Amino acid sequence: MTSRPLPIVPARDGLSADCSRCAGLCCVAPAFAASADFAFDKPAGTPCRHLQGDFGCGIHDRLRPEGFPGCTVFDCFGAGQRITQQTFGGRTWRETPELAAAQFAVLPVMRQLHEILWYLAEAATLPAAAELHPAVEQARDATERLAGADAGSLRALDVGAHRAGVGALLQRVSDAVRTPAGPDRRGADLMGRDLRRTRLRGASLRGAYLIGADLRGVDLGRADLLGADLRAADVRGADLSGCLFVTRPQLEAARGDAATVLPPGLPRPGHWQQDPAGGRPAR
Description:
Elements: H1 69-72, H2 79-87, H3 100-123, H4 133-147, H5 151-156, H6 159-177, H7 248-253
Helix pairs in contact: 2-3, 3-4, 3-6, 4-6
């Protein structure tokens, strides 16, 4: 059974990274350690050695072969350009070093607020959750007000508490859309599991650990994937078109192909294996 695709979400404008309007915040603020995700160590607050003078990445077109898949799965959801252009009025940590600490501290807060806006924008389009749309719009307005605050207010914000409140609302949205509900696997450890014969249509996989799981050809219609860990999950030929709350980082972390059916508006990761025949293989 093929899933009914989710509607395209125009309200997500501004919720995707525009590095040309940012100051390379994600290349400076966080620390990373030499691992399968990063080729070398970098302390927090120190620019990556590949950061260019114009805030561009010198190896952006070859991050994976250069040993930086961790960079490809990061998405600030547009927080970087908002901080640079709105919160700090176009001033950057490089030209005004005294702003560096504040800009770097605001990044994780703004990123969470923008991720919340990403989910709420989708929730507002779901017909099955129409009775909850007023509450969703109120949550969006409240989140926008928080994101539009000054740097001091953002640094003092208990973003975890706000996220928890919105999370409860998104759970109600999920319950409405997934009626009748599939299996409840919230937070389940499904790492490395062969799930090809497991019924997951309408399932709650919120926060589930699907690292390395085999989901080839699986119909995940109406499954809630909010916060699910899809690192190295094999979704080749899977139908994700009707899944709830999918993000670009989740897709970038997974293994897919030309036959994987994506939710509208989400790009197919460039590193996914392409079908040489140019079409979908038979299932």
